[in-house]
Specification:
The protein has about 190 residues and is of the alpha+beta class. It has four helices and four strands, in the order H-E-H-E-E-H-H-E. It has one domain.
C-alpha cells in the first residue's frame, strides 16, 4: 500500500506535467493558425477597398474569408471560423455554447480594462482542442461595422442585399467585434 502511494506521488505530477506541456503545444499551434487569418483578410480587404470602395469589399468578408479558412483547414487540420455575439452572417458566424461563453467572458474582461487584442482562451473540450481569440474592431472595419448613421449609402445597400438580418453594426474602434475560433480533434 505504501509503495502504491509513493508511485502515485511520483507518477501523478509527471502525468500532469505532460498534459500541461501538451496543452501548451496545442495552445501555441492553435494561436498560430488563428492569427494567420486576420492579416490575410485585412490585406485582401484593403486591396479591394482601393479598387471598388468599401461596398465592393463586402464580398471579401462574405466569400473570401470562408475560403481562406477552408484552405487553412486543408493545410493544418484546424477548423477555422469567425464568430460573433452580433453576427452578420447567420449561416456561418453564430457561436456555439462554448464560443458564446468565451465571447461573453471577453466582453466582461474588456469592460474591466483588459486590452481586447490580448483576450484568448484555449482548452481541451471533450475530444478536441478549442481556441478563440478576440477580434477588436480596427479603423478599417468601421466602413461596414461602424454606427449605421455613419455608413455610406452604398455600403448600407450592399449590406441590406447580402445580410437582411445584419446585427453587426454600431461598433467603435477597439470594441470586440467577435473572435476567430479554431478547433482540432485530439
Amino acid at each position: 500500500m505504501k509503495t502504491q502511494s509513493i508511485v502515485a506521488a511520483l507518477v501523478i505530477p509527471f502525468v500532469a506535467t505532460l498534459a500541461h506541456a501538451g496543452d501548451d503545444a496545442m495552445l501555441s499551434e492553435a494561436r498560430n493558425v488563428a492569427m494567420s487569418l486576420p492579416p490575410k483578410l485585412l490585406a485582401s480587404l484593403q486591396e479591394e477597398i482601393k479598387k471598388s470602395g468599401p461596398e465592393g469589399a463586402i464580398p471579401v468578408c462574405k466569400d473570401m474569408a470562408p475560403k481562406m479558412a477552408g484552405k487553412l483547414f486543408q493545410e493544418t487540420g484546424w477548423k477555422v471560423k469567425r464568430v460573433s455575439l452580433k453576427p452578420r452572417n447567420e449561416a456561418r458566424a453564430i457561436p456555439d455554447d462554448w464560443e458564446k461563453a468565451a465571447l461573453e467572458d471577453f466582453d466582461r474582461r474588456a469592460a474591466a480594462g483588459e486590452p481586447p487584442a490580448q483576450l484568448e482562451k484555449g482548452e481541451t473540450v471533450g475530444s478536441e482542442y478549442r481556441y478563440v481569440k478576440a477580434l477588436p474592431v480596427q479603423p478599417l472595419c468601421l466602413n461596414c461595422h461602424g454606427p449605421v448613421d455613419q455608413l455610406s449609402p452604398a455600403v448600407k445597400s450592399v449590406l441590406g442585399e447580402h445580410y437582411p438580418n445584419d446585427r453587426a453594426t454600431g461598433y467603435s474602434v477597439g470594441q470586440i467585434r467577435g473572435a476567430i475560433s479554431v478547433r482540432k480533434p485530439l
